[in-house]
Amino acid sequence: MANAFNSMSKGVIFQELHVKGGDIIQLIPFVHAFYTLKSPLFYSDNNHDGNVIIIPFAMGTHEGDPLERALFTLTHFRALHFIVSHFPSYLFRSIANDIHIIVPPPTSIVLFTYENF
After folding, report:
1. Contact 5, 61 (CB under 8 A)
2. Which residue did the predictor score with more confidence, 110 or 37?
């Protein structure tokens, strides 16, 4: 299993907190207290056999954490900003891990050329 929230590096979370600077730096000790521990994820396929798979938790944010979306958004903001700056005619709408890209229609469409005849 993989998802966007569980795929980001915890190191990137702390790096981005430092890069943003200002008052957000005050969150670093709080985030550090919760995100430096390696707590496991428990997964069950719900087939009532009682089997639970334990997945080591070394990446990403904790599900249900009130800061989860904010930390995720913080970590992918620079990459998204880079992409947006290279495609100025595209429209990007992003809420957490849902990114919608609206591409402008082509300016011209060539259906055939004289070389085809």
Report:
1. yes
2. 37
